[in-house]
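Exam revision sheet. Question 4 asks you to relate a sequence to its structure. Input first:
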Amino acid sequence: MKKRMLYLLSALVVCAGCVSYHTPPEDRRVTVSPDLGTCVWVTDVRLTKAQSQHYTLQANVANNTDGVVRMEYKVVWLDSNGAEIPSVVSTWQPMSAAVRNVVGLTATAPAPEAVDFRLYIQGAQGY
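Answer key, structure tokens:
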């Protein structure tokens, strides 16, 4: 009985340690500027193709702080050669995330030739 209780207690301590020390998920297509540090993490990055043959990006941004985080994001779309597809929609968009909250963002490719993306996030500039 004592051994069983000791194993249970050890498992709880190990699990608590896992919860306390998070590392942000890594996706090379996503860049979070150093001014945000580890205040936000981008998670659950998904790229789907709609019936229109245009890709749609969906991503979640998690606020890891005890305050509201104001930021901006921009999605740059790339063709099969890795070249940027010029678009008026590839501009900085304001976004904020409430305390310890997750906010989703969505962007649709401007052309069917877009096959990949780059997502940039920075601290808000006067928003």
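Marking note for examiners. The longest helix spans residues 2-20.
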